[in-house]
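Problem statement: downstream parser choked on a complex file, so we are re-checking the raw output for the 3-methyl-2-oxobutanoic acid run. The parser issue turned out to be on our end (a line-ending mismatch), but while we're here, posting the original submission so the record is complete.
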Amino acid sequence: MSVSKKEYKKVTVKSLVDMKKHGEKISMLTAYDFTMAKILDGAGIDVLLVGDSASNVMAGNETTLPITLDQMIYHASSVVKGIDRCLVVVDLPFGSYQSDPKEALRSAIRIMKESGGHSIKLEGGKEIKESIKRILNAGIPVMGHLGLTPQSIYKFGTYTVRAKKEEEAEKLMEDALLLERIGCFALVLEKVPAKLAQKIAEALTIPVIGIGAGNGVDGQVLVTHDMIGMTHEFQPRFLRRYLDLYKDMTGAFEDYIENVKSGDFPNEKEQY
Ligand code: KIV
């Protein structure tokens, strides 16, 4: 389905705020490497997130906690080389910003200098306010991330829907307003009730991008490997699979193995 939209030759943090103002939904997906970034950018994605989900998807870890700043910089610099138009947001990994604002700024500067990414994302509200302010003061755009924050998984113990209780919902709204007030350019809301997410999106002028947060927000993000079905064990309710690449790739690999074993590959036309 094609949607009429304003042309953005390059997507910037300003374009995203503009999109929200004009009611154009923002499309965002993850990327961790050059080839995928090139395909996604060519398809017209607005934002690529070099997510710390690379820890799960690329490195096979159970959580996002083990990925390092050096590894995030490696992924981000590969993504940046593949894009022409979209905005690249890079996650600050666990342990690179929680201890104090100076360390947070140092980590953000390393990402900007060494990867060429355009902005950073970090998880949390009031508790990391000073770190966010310090990064913003250095001229680095910051995207917030509230709701389910996977870097705190051991504190909560589960990946269930957040902010179902009144008290947690109030804190979420307060944190969202705070992030806007101190200057974040956008906010990811992960796995929260749709009604609450819509209320937050309506209360903010900066875009709210949802994952498992319903359709009342200003844009959507998914982990690319999940939405194209390369991963197949993970099936949360919010995930729409656009392809079943796990099945298709397995079939292709089986065919290749069979062709090599039988001597069918390469044939006469495939040799010199
Ligand atoms: O790391 C990631 O992929 C993310 C998204 C789930 C928003 O933070």
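For whoever reads this later: Residues 30, 49, 51-53, 91, 188, 190, 211, 221, 223 surround 3-methyl-2-oxobutanoic acid (CB under 6 Å).
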